[in-house]
Specification:
alpha/beta, five-stranded parallel beta sheet, five-stranded mixed beta sheet
C-alpha cells in the first residue's frame, strides 16, 4: 500500500482515484499541475490562474483566491481542491472540507521548499516520475543561481509590492528568501509584519543599492519611478522593474525564476 502524502498542515492524503477532479485555488499551483501532466484532471481554477495560457482557457473559473464560489466548485464535482495557507481563506478551506472534498494545503516558505511541493502533488495524483523530473530541474537551476550569487557582492534592495499605501516584504517571506538566493537582500527586518507599510523618504532608501518595483500585485508604471525619486529626494535613485511572477510564484515557475533572477542580478550589478 502506498504511503499517504502529507500536506503543509500535516494532513495525510492517500493516492487519488484515477477519476480525480481537481480545483486549484492557487495560480502557481495551477501551472504546476499542468507541468505534472494533470491538466486533463483540472476542472476549476481562479481568475488569477493565467498559466499556461493555452491550457487554462479550457478550465472553468471559480472566482478569486479570496472569493472562490464554493457552490460552483461543488457543481463541478471536485474531489480535490488545492489551497495555500497564505493565499486562501481558512473558512473557505473548512467549508470545502465540510462538503466532503479533500483539501490539500500548500505553504512553500522558501525556494528550497519547491521539491517537497512537487513530490506532494506527484504522490497524491500519480505523477511521481514527473515530480522527480521537476525536482532535478529545480536543483540544477537553483544551484546555478546560488553559485552566480556567490560570485558577486551582495546588493541591498527595497522591493515594493503596493502603492497607497506603499508596501514592501519582510525577510520572512518567500519573495525575500528567493531574492536572497540571488544575492539581493531586502531591507525590511524580520519579526514584524510580513508585508510592512513604508513611507518613501530619504531614510527608507538610505544604503539601498536599488528599489525594485514588482509587476504584481500592483501595476507599477514609469510615473511611479518619478514619484519615488521626488519623495526620497534622490533624483538618481536606481529604480528597476522586476517580474513579480519570477520572485513570488513557486511551483514549476520557480525553475524559470532562477534563470531570470540570475540574469536580473547580473544586470543590476552591471548598472
Amino acid at each position: 500500500m502506498s504511503t499517504p502524502a502529507v500536506d503543509a498542515l500535516g494532513r495525510a492524503h492517500p493516492p487519488a482515484a484515477p477519476g480525480a477532479r481537481i480545483v486549484s485555488l492557487v495560480p502557481s499551483v495551477t501551472e504546476l499541475l499542468f507541468d505534472l501532466g494533470l491538466g486533463s484532471r483540472l476542472v476549476g481554477r481562479t481568475t488569477f490562474c493565467i498559466h499556461p495560457r493555452e491550457g487554462v482557457d479550457a478550465v472553468a473559473r471559480v472566482g478569486g483566491t479570496k472569493t472562490p464560489r464554493l457552490d460552483r466548485i461543488r457543481e463541478l464535482g471536485a474531489t480535490h481542491v488545492v489551497v495555500n495557507v497564505d493565499e486562501n481563506r481558512r473558512e473557505d478551506a473548512a467549508a470545502l472540507a465540510d462538503m466532503g472534498i479533500r483539501v490539500i494545503a500548500t505553504h512553500p516558505c522558501a525556494p528550497e521548499d519547491n521539491p517537497a511541493l512537487y513530490r506532494l502533488l506527484g504522490a497524491v495524483f500519480g505523477r511521481v516520475p514527473e515530480a522527480e523530473a521537476l525536482c532535478r530541474r529545480f536543483r540544477d537551476a537553483f544551484g546555478a543561481l546560488c553559485r552566480a550569487a556567490g560570485d558577486r557582492p551582495r546588493r541591498r534592495v527595497l522591493y515594493l509590492i503596493w502603492r497607497d499605501p506603499w508596501m514592501t516584504v519582510s525577510g520572512e517571506t518567500y519573495i525575500a528568501r528567493t531574492l536572497a538566493a540571488a544575492g539581493l537582500d531586502t531591507t525590511a527586518n524580520a519579526g514584524g509584519a510580513r508585508y510592512p507599510e513604508i513611507v518613501p523618504d530619504a531614510a527608507s532608501v538610505a544604503g539601498v543599492d536599488a528599489v525594485l518595483l514588482s509587476s504584481e500585485p500592483y501595476p507599477f508604471k514609469q510615473r511611479h519611478v518619478t514619484e519615488l525619486r521626488r519623495l526620497t529626494g534622490r533624483a538618481e535613485l536606481p529604480v528597476r522593474f522586476i517580474d513579480g511572477e519570477m520572485t513570488s510564484w513557486y511551483g514549476s515557475r520557480a525553475i524559470t525564476g532562477c534563470a531570470y533572477l540570475a540574469r536580473f542580478a547580473r544586470e543590476l550589478a552591471a548598472g
